[in-house]
Amino acid sequence: MGLKPIRVGQLNNYIGRVLKTDPILANVSVIGEISNLKFHSSGHVYFSLKDESSKINCFLAASNLERITCPLEEGMEIVASGYISVYERGGYYSLNIRDIEVNGEGQLAVQFEKLKAKLEKEGLFSAEHKKTLPEFPSKVAVVTSETGAAVRDIIRTIKNKNDYVDILVYPVLVQGPAAAGDIAAALRDLNENYSDVDVIITGRGGGSMEELWAFNEEVVARSIFDSVIPVISAVGHETDFTISDFTADFRAATPTAAAEMAVPDTRELREYLSGIKESLAESLMQAVEIRRNRLAALDPNAFAKGISTRIAYEQMNADRIIESMGESLASRISSGRERIELLKALLDASDPKSILSRGYSVVTDEDGHIISRAEELKIGQNVNIETGSGSAGAEITRVN
């Protein structure tokens, strides 16, 4: 005979008590990807965890959310720890979350951001601490794996570009738990015992975040910052960024780019120096020619010849000036003579005697005053009449 029928609520309540007493379901950790993420106005968070084949509803209380250090995002893979419970009213179960850890690269990304913020606050990324690269390095140290493609690319690029610089390969681990300490120790050793090294290139080829992680360790960042020798960080591909990139004096997108950056092109330098040599030779020849001309000018024979030529030139110039002055003086005399003749003609024309000779006469009284109007004459007055050829006395008998 079957059990007595029970109500739905009773069944869900029973299932809930069973789940709470199960040692596994009461303290379980589940790996999955966040989907349908919702932040409720109450402060609670609702979402689903899913994998390739299934999903489970999750509930994160506001009180537990405060302890979560990483921001939750859609698609993030996490490890959610909590217990399974039944929502009696809805008749479904969910994972009630106590704590969350970011899984895989997500966890590494959180660690990366934490360390980046810490070191940036301390000033390890500040531009004022960055050192300049030497223009003409004589030795470049390469801190990387001696068997990787990165070291081959760096050596080939440097040798193709510069046939003068020496290359020191300092082999280190670039992946795994011991890699960060190995890289940091190499950087310290180069600074302490290799005073002839001018530039350090450290890095490796591309890979996943876990594979590049050694260059995100704090010990490597501080070794780069403490290096007296300028450091170029060349980790992974152009899109990869590591903590060492921010701490180093220069960041190269790839190991090949780091090699290009580290050394000058000796072929270009030789062409530049050749151009300077030709320019100096030309300037020297011009200077020699100037001094040769000056020496020639100091030769007595050449000097005497130059003086004779100069005297002849000055004599010719003086003759030309005298001739010009004579012509100018003759012209001025001629002009003066013509002006005198003109003035003489004008003077002659205005001479009273000349006027009288043309039939005019001048009448004066006994005192010699000229009488120019008839009203000035009086009956019985004696006057003198002056003509062009002589004079005569007269007595006025009538005045009209």
Write up this protein:
By secondary structure, this protein is of the alpha/beta class. It has 3 domains: 8-103, Nucleic acid-binding proteins (OB fold (Dihydrolipoamide Acetyltransferase, E2P)), CATH 2.40.50.140; 109-125 and 138-264, Succinyl-CoA synthetase domains (Rossmann fold); 354-395, no CATH class. It is built from 11 helices and 13 strands. It has helices at residues 8-21, 62-65, 105-122, 149-161, 179-193, 218-226, 243-247, 255-262, 266-297, 300-349, 352-356; strands at 28-39, 45-50, 55-60, 77-87, 92-102, 139-144, 166-171, 199-204, 231-235, 250-251, 362-364, 382-386, 391-395. The strands form 3 sheets. A 5-stranded mixed barrel has the order 1-2-3-5-4. Strand 1 and strand 2 form a beta hairpin. Helix 5 runs parallel beside helix 6 (218-226). It starts with 7 loop residues before the first helix and ends in a 5-residue tail after the last strand. The mean pLDDT is 85.
